[in-house]
Amino acid sequence: MGKGVPAAARALAILDFLAAHPTDSFSLSELAKELGIGSGSAHALLGAMTQAGYLVRHPSHKTFRLGPSAIAVGHAALESHPVIEVARDEMRRIADELDLECLAAAPLGDELVMVARVGGSHAGRTLSRVGDRLPLIPPLGTMYVAWAGDDVVAAWLSRGDASEPPERITGYLRALESARALGYSVGVVVGDTVTAVQPVSGDPKRLDLDPDLTYEIAYVAASVFDPRQEVALVINLDGFTQPLDLGSIVAIGQRLLDAARVITRGIHGRLPEGLVPRRSPAVDKV
């Protein structure tokens, strides 16, 4: 068992990597380098996984990609998690409406795993792929942590940069307060940093942004809830190509909140007490 566990972890790492690059094929040396696996171990693992049908090897290029056994597992996983299929339809609708990319991430321990992606990518932006795992480090994961218990919030804060000043930590907590009040969160780009927008002091339902300015938007996110009122998915809008003013940001946040509510209803989920989003008017493409 002691030897088998590392081998199993390396096999799962191979599957995760190929799932994050579903249209690409990789040679043994490329996979070994990307994943930090020795050539001998990689050769044995790839051979076993190919024989079992989880990988397919190109006869002449000698590259590997996902095989039919992985497809079967993927279909079974979708049946076990119907929220993804329900979400994809609504995500496609809002992505087409706003000409943005919409991604869905599911919480997994101290990570978020990208489970769905729709909409066209925009030139010059590096966006996440399905299968990518992102660490829950502030401000990432605000719409998951906002609804969690104090222990989860404390662990989330502890994974941040220890050198950050106390006011930055206070800002993260205020962003969580705003997320709970509004039902969505907004990230803006300030210099080279993505910052979760805080609320106006004393009014968590108002974003602390100047209505006379425009802002480069990194993301807008909202939570989808399961029947236990727990976060099943976080859906994110990405791919913003031009700065937006406060009115446009709020309208997009409300539109995404409406989409999250549709998905929640589609999986018979229940909204947390007090979160009753209103219907918003149509939003122009951005």
Fold topology:
Blueprint: H1 4-19, E1 26-27, H2 28-35, H3 39-51, E2 55-57, E3 63-66, H4 68-80, H5 83-98, E4 101-108, E5 111-118, E6 133-135, H6 142-145, H7 150-158, H8 166-182, E7 184-190, E8 193-196, E9 199-200, E10 203-207, E11 214-215, E12 217-225, E13 231-238, E14 244-245, H9 246-266
Antiparallel strand pairs: 1-3, 2-3, 4-5, 4-13, 5-6, 7-8, 7-12, 9-10, 11-14, 12-13
Describe the overall structure:
- This protein folds into two domains: 4-69, Orthogonal Bundle (Arc Repressor Mutant, subunit A), CATH 1.10.10.10; 81-266, GAF domain (Beta-Lactamase, 2-Layer Sandwich), CATH 3.30.450.40.
- The chain has helices at 4-19, 28-35, 39-51, 68-80, 83-98, 142-145, 150-158, 166-182, 246-266, and strands at residues 26-27, 55-57, 63-66, 101-108, 111-118, 133-135, 184-190, 193-196, 199-200, 203-207, 214-215, 217-225, 231-238, 244-245.
- The relative contact order is 0.11.
- The chain is elongated, with a radius of gyration of 21 Å.
- Residues 276-284 have low confidence and may be disordered.
- A hairpin with a 5-residue loop joins strand 2 and strand 3.
- It is α+β, with helices and mostly antiparallel strands and 286 residues long.
- It has a seven-stranded antiparallel β-sheet with strand order 6-5-4-13-12-7-8.
- The longest helix has 21 residues, at 246-266.
